[in-house]
Amino acid sequence: MQKNRVVFFLLLAASLASLTGCPGKNSPTTPTTSGNGDMPTATAGTPSTPAPSASPTASPTSTASPSPTTSPVSTATSTLSRTPTSSATPTITGAATATATPSLTPTVTGVATGTFPPTASPTLTVTSSPTASPTATVQVVFGQPMVENQEGTPVAQLALLVNGAPVTDASVTLSGSFGSVALPYLFNGYFPNETSVNYAVYLAQGGFPYHAGQTYVISAVTSAGLSSVTITAPGGNVSVSPNGQTATWDHAGNQDEVTVYNSLNQVFDSADTTADALSPFNIPASVFGPQDTYEVDVDVILTSNQVSNAVLDPANPPQGEDFETFSFCEFAGFPCGTVVPTSTPTVTPSPTPTPVIVFDQAQVFYNGSSSTPQGAELYLQVNGAPQSTAAVTLFGPGLGSGIPLAYAFPVTDNSEVFSAYGTAAFTYQGGQTYALYCHTTAGNASVTVTAPGPTTVSSNGLTVSWGQGGDFMTLSILDGVTSVYSKPLTTSPQQVPVSVYAAAGSYKANINLQSYSTPVNAVMSDNGFSAMGSYQSITSLCIGGGDIPCPKTYQASWGTAGAGKGQFGRPQGIAFDASGNLWVADLDNNRIQELPAGLDGSVAGNWVTDGGPASSGVAGQFSDPQGLVVDSSGNLYVADTFNSRIQKLPVGLSPATSSNWATVGISGTAAGQFNNPTQVGLDASGNLWVADYSNNRLQRLLSANFTNSSGWAAAGGTAAGTAPGSFSNPKGLFFDGSSNLWVADSGNNRIEELPWPDSYSVSGNWTTIGGTASGTTPGKFNAPQEVTVDSQGNLFVSDSGNNRIQELGAGLAANVSTNWVTIGGPGSGAGQFSTPVGVAVDASGKLYVADSNNDRIEVFGP
After folding, report:
1. Which of 121, 211, 374, 850 has its CA 20 to 30 A from that of 266?
2. Nearest to 705 by CA among 685, 731, 733
3. Can you tell me the distance from the alpha carbon of 397 to that of 531, in angstroms, rounded to the nearest whole number?
4. Whether the Cβ atoms of residue 636 and residue 648 lie closer than 8 Å to each other
5. What number of CA atoms fall less than 13 Å from residue 387's CA on the CB side?
6. How far, in Å, CA of 228 to CA of 286, rounded?
7. Would the pTM of this model clear 0.85, i.e. be above it?
8. Residue 85: which residues within 8 A CB-CB, separation 6 or more?
């Protein structure tokens, strides 16, 4: 099959190039914040600000409402899309039909009689009721509907005839798991196997993701009705062996073809074949004679797809086609781009010995240490001596034209000296085949290594499994860095004795696999050195003592200081909604940020923002927002701290429209008034609760009814207190899955719990954890900021002044210090904190922490 679609796709590229993209939103101007900390405090005559970013001290008694500093006003507006709109795929029912217009010509019968010239009018009999033509069936015909991957560019096309003629005004849509895109009309083209004046409309689009094996639907709405065709995209993932002689792909179809190109010229064509088992396909070695860059093209043409609601000429079946290209470089069995010696060795042994190239420990491995997460290594000896000037290249999946291995140092193995070459700069893929090519003064050699697969450990730590076997295997269990168990292995999975995990702690399972085999193109010496495929996998596991949970481990960090999307200015409260979307109160940027469920928070463009700059009165704008919550219906509530109010955005409404926001509260001490509210929550009855920070109390609004200003009740009082059910600067509150209320009583350095549905006004109903004095031992706190409880009942507290998170396992006694687990510590490194505030746990058990003064969100795995 020739590349006879080049003109078509050049026209396609020209058409698509005329499309313009949507302009980006203006980034909000970084405001000047009036707060200097996470928890606002106030003294008489002084504006109240959140607690300073340094380690908190005892909270002063608030005697006056703050006057927030007005931040500069920006005309930039960020739009927050909270409820995505999905495009429905049209339902197709039945064939399109049309009724022909009946003929109105009368039928004349009888014979005219008389003389000439006539003396009377002839006698005529006229049938007045015309005979209607039968109803015509409309024919909508598709030819060559296809979804393909044309040299890395996804393309869909359709040839379309309606009643035997092309139409240029059809509305054609491509739909799939990605959504849908419109396919524009491009040009008229020759319809397959038609010799009459019938021409087709070709439509194409490159703006969609191609997924081999996925189902796509092309729907055409024409003047005659709607028709569609379903296509399963074949093929994909074409790979070529390192020597360039074997092509492999995922899908064999009714008609396959393999073509090889040398630069721009075709040098090999397998010709079409109907064999279903064509993959893998061997290419003659003679094809790769001269040094050059080659392309291997694989066409897979399916001729069995059926078109729904379209009448087809049996000679013109629909076709789905996949076109994949894989480029590589070949020179006499050795890859291009390596360093060729510029001079020939001057010493010629006499007699001339046979060149001997020996590999030892040729390996591709995964190393569980954080410094070298993957690597490749080769020990090389040429003519009995190490050689440090060889050109060594690693080829494999995802490595393109290969990556070089650098000379590292001489190494001795089994009394022989080798040169060690290595690299750690590639993505390891377990179970895949890699090739190490070596160009030396004695010639070329290569070895192929199959990388072993991943290692897993069961949750109780007793069973270890791995994906690839070898000739020699060793399993080690390490407690910290000390091996407590080691055993040669032959099978997977492997049972580890219970006694190995006798003590609570973190363990690591280390698998080493050594697969001895003869390398390709390497002459081996008699000492038995050979290629060795090695796998080093260190999988961490924590075995708790009884019900004590193991510390969660650091996984990722999202964001830096700034005002762009995905950047933060001292982030505060964070929360997940019922759909798994993550919400963050971005304090210094006076806005809310949302990360839709399933998206990577390290990608700035994945974040959606709303609010900013600071505003003291406009609905939908914020001044140092510190807390938020989303109810089960998707309504958003925000503690607009320095505006001393709560704002609500009903689900489905645009946050950019000020009138869509409802607000409640003003600065004051009366019911329904606030003095720097910092967090909001909803109980099982739908009542809204507010942490009224500087008023030293909680407030509750029955049924979260914003229009019922008389529905407020207070827990605590405007004066700070230490008795159970009293508060000193309560900062965070949270309702767990049983609707028990947890409060971070910041100024009292403790956590308070109120079981549901006990009355908040009875002091004896409250349980306190910690104490009124700050402390650094487990179970003691220094100005705790937020609290959350996961679905298992484990309690997490942001121990802000101690720059750590503390966890208490479900059902464990809080007054036993050894029941507490500490996560993190002071600093700016991975897994460290500087004034952590918001804490939240997602459905999978991952912990998210708003590391406020480090301007980021950190993620910890279960």
Report:
1. 211
2. 685
3. 20
4. yes
5. 20
6. 46
7. no
8. none
